[in-house]
Design brief:
There is one protein chain. It is built from one helix and four strands. The chain has 107 residues and is α+β, with helices and mostly antiparallel strands. The chain is globular. The protein starts with 18 loop residues before the first strand and ends in a 9-residue tail after the last strand.
């Protein structure tokens, strides 16, 4: 029996029509030294995916929860790098889709 949760499809007709972005816990621990004190953090990941091709056009990993500035940087890097690195998915997308995670909400 298939026990996987159902997926929601958002059909697109071409690359760059829509990018999707989400944040997740990687399950990995990162050790950092902060002012001489060693601390452990769970690494966080934000990924940007082209909905049509399913290509990951950008991502960021942090040792802390992402904030709006971090998300903007990941998105800016995806747009800049995509222009030369992922030709079929480069440049600026027509639309963005995110969930209601804290890092995607304006204050």
């Amino acid at each position: 029996a298939d026990t996987a949760a159902p997926t929601i499809e958002y059909p697109t007709s071409h690359a760059n029509e829509e990018w999707q972005m989400d944040e997740a816990d990687t399950g990995l621990w990162v050790r950092e030294t902060d002012d001489g004190e060693e601390k452990a953090y769970r690494a966080r990941l934000v990924a940007v995916m082209d909905a049509h091709s399913r290509v990951i056009v950008g991502f960021g990993v942090r040792s802390h929860a992402f904030n709006q500035r971090d998300v903007i940087q990941v998105l800016a890097d995806a747009v800049a790098v995509g222009k030369g690195h992922v030709p079929e998915c480069g440049g600026v997308p027509d639309a963005m889709r995110t969930d209601n995670g804290t890092c995607f909400k304006g204050r």
